[in-house]
């Protein structure tokens, strides 16, 4: 699981950083001076890690931050990147000297935010408002902090480059220089990078290959709920996610996301079903809602939020063709509660069931969860990690779960959970919302 560290002072990336390495003539003798080690000779050097004080963040980093590494935090403006990094300063500055560089806010603005977040500096947290990269490096040289936070990479610039701050060249140059600081001086660097909706021209994407870790902070601004995902991690897996809730006093960890996402769920109402999806290695329960109503206009409206639009259209088509639940003349609205996104095959069945339940106005029992991928023939297909998912379903007090029959013969249900194996969406529907209505007459089909 632990990858051996890279060669220390060779930042990844191809040239362009003005000089080091190019030019010197290297003869064959010099080249052969170091015999490459045999696999057996390589010793496993564990990285020195430390906790950021936030378990959810530590988990995404692979068990804490690695000393001398550079981590990029990407996300849309306003999502909470500055909040997250200022918040960990409280815990970090208990043990380390921290230099917080901001090109976006004044020291008094940072102080105000720190007060709101109840962040203290413990005499080890210094604030620097600076956008000139060389001034930042000079400060790092004289203060030799253990940790440097740069908010944001788009505000930093090097005046030897013609381009404006935020330009691809500037952003790359500044990242490269901070990477050398991390590798050369062993400073742990956290860098914030804004992502814009259009896909980030000079955003974190162009920097991904240079840095050690890239974490994306995601969520809907209107919702409190935030997910931290690793897109790249040289020191751990990229499967883990961290969950947070944005509150007045800052980001609160959500150690129990399923309970959070299911809070306030309506019971006994048609058009809602609970799904269990895998987020990294973690099963998470979420509620998917559907409203299928007769259309008032010629063309039915379809709106989908938190679920892939095309996938939802496919499920409506399967529902009609394979299970006889007609939606062609109805509007369909599909929404995943809490701003969560279900983008995993296991969410097919609960989404389809929510649509059928709404179309037939028959509630799905509140103690039931559904898991399964839906094929075009209406068949239900196995999904990964079913035992873990069922464990989570049972843990949250559900007593029934409907799963695909295929590939689950040897599966043992957790105690207290009754599982129903269904081969086809028709079977699943028969179990839950009763037999489909007889199809309305159609002129042609
Ligand atoms: N005074 C405040 N009270 C409560 N929440 C605030 C306040 N100021 C900012 N926030 C929250 O913090 C978010 C901004 O987070 P921030 O860390 O500045 O984002 P980023 O650095 O990613 O642009 C806002 O969207 C809001 O939810
Ligand atoms: Mg910010």
How would you sum up this structure, described in words?
- This protein has 445 residues and is an alpha/beta fold.
- The chain has helices at 28-32, 55-61, 81-95, 107-116, 133-143, 168-185, 257-262, 309-323, 348-360, 386-395, 425-432; strands at residues 49-50, 65-66, 70-75, 98-102, 125-129, 147-151, 188-194, 213-219, 225-233, 241-247, 250-253, 272-279, 282-294, 302-305, 330-336, 368-370, 373-374, 380-381, 400-404, 418-422.
- The strands form 4 sheets. The protein has a 9-stranded mixed β-sheet with strand order 5-4-6-7-3-8-9-10-11, with helices on both faces.
- Helix 9 crosses helix 11.
- It is elongated, with a radius of gyration of 26 Å.
- Mean pLDDT is 88; it is low at 1-23 and 435-445.
How many alpha or pi helices?
11
> How is the main sheet built?
9 strands, mixed
The stretches of 5 or more residues where confidence is low (pLDDT under 50) are 1-23, 435-445
The rounded distance between the terminal residues' Cα atoms is 55 Å
Molecules bound to protein: adenosine-5'-diphosphate, magnesium ion
Give the structural class.
alpha/beta
Strand line-up across the major sheet: 5-4-6-7-3-8-9-10-11
Features:
445 residues; alpha/beta; 9-stranded mixed β-sheet; 7-stranded mixed β-sheet; 11 helices; 20 strands; 27% helix; elongated; binds adenosine-5'-diphosphate; binds magnesium ion
How does the SSE layout of this entry go?
Elements: H1 28-32, E1 49-50, H2 55-61, E2 65-66, E3 70-75, H3 81-95, E4 98-102, H4 107-116, E5 125-129, H5 133-143, E6 147-151, H6 168-185, E7 188-194, E8 213-219, E9 225-233, E10 241-247, E11 250-253, H7 257-262, E12 272-279, E13 282-294, E14 302-305, H8 309-323, E15 330-336, H9 348-360, E16 368-370, E17 373-374, E18 380-381, H10 386-395, E19 400-404, E20 418-422, H11 425-432
Parallel strand pairs: 3-7, 3-8, 4-5, 4-6, 6-7, 12-16, 14-15, 16-19, 19-20
Antiparallel strand pairs: 1-2, 8-9, 9-10, 10-11, 12-13, 13-15, 17-18
The structure holds adenosine-5'-diphosphate (ADP) and magnesium ion (MG).
Magnesium ion binds near residues 82, 104 and 151.
């Amino acid at each position: 699981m632990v990858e051996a560290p890279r060669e220390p002072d060779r930042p990844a990336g191809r040239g362009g950083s003005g000089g080091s390495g190019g030019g010197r003539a290297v003869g064959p003798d010099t080249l052969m001076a170091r015999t490459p080690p045999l696999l057996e000779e390589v010793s496993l050097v564990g990285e020195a890690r430390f906790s950021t004080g936030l378990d959810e963040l530590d988990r995404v980093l692979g068990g804490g931050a690695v000393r001398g590494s550079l981590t990029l935090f990407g996300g849309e403006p306003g999502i909470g990147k500055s909040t997250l990094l200022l918040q960990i300063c409280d815990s970090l500055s208990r043990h380390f000297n921290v230099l917080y560089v901001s090109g976006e806010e004044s020291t008094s603005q940072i102080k105000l935010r720190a007060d709101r977040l109840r962040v203290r500096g413990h005499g080890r947290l210094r604030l620097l408002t600076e956008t000139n990269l060389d001034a930042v490096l000079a400060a790092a040289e004289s203060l030799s902090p253990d940790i440097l936070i740069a908010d944001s990479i788009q505000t930093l610039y090097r005046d030897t480059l013609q381009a404006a701050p935020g330009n691809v060249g500037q952003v790359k140059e500044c990242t490269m220089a901070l990477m050398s600081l991390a590798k050369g001086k062993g400073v742990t660097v956290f860098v914030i990078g804004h992502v814009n909706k259009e896909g980030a021209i000079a955003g974190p994407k162009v920097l991904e290959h240079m840095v050690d870790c890239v974490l994306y902070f995601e969520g809907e601004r209107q919702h409190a709920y935030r997910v931290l995902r690793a897109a790249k991690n040289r020191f751990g897996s990229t499967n883990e996610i961290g969950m947070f809730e944005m509150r007045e006093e800052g980001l609160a960890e959500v150690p129990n996301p399923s309970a959070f996402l299911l809070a306030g769920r309506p019971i006994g109402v048609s058009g809602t079903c609970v799904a269990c999806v895998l987020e990294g290695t973690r099963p998470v329960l979420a509620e998917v809602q559907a409203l299928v109503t007769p259309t008032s206009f010629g063309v039915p409206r379809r709106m989908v939020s938190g679920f892939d639009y095309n996938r939802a259209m496919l499920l409506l088509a399967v529902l009609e063709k394979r299970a006889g639940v007609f939606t062609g003349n109805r509007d369909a609205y599909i929404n995943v509660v809490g701003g969560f996104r279900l983008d995993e095959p296991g969410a097919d069945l609960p989404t389809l069931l929510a649509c059928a339940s709404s179309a037939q106005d028959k509630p799905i029992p509140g103690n039931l969860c559904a898991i399964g991928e839906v094929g075009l023939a209406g068949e239900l297909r196995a999904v990964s990690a079913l035992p873990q998912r069922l464990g989570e379903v049972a843990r949250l007090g559900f007593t029934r779960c409907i799963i695909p029959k295929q590939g689950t013969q040897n599966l043992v249900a957790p105690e207290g959970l009754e599982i129903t194996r269904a081969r086809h969406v028709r079977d699943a529907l028969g179990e839950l919302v009763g037999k489909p209505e007889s199809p309305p007459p159609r002129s042609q089909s």
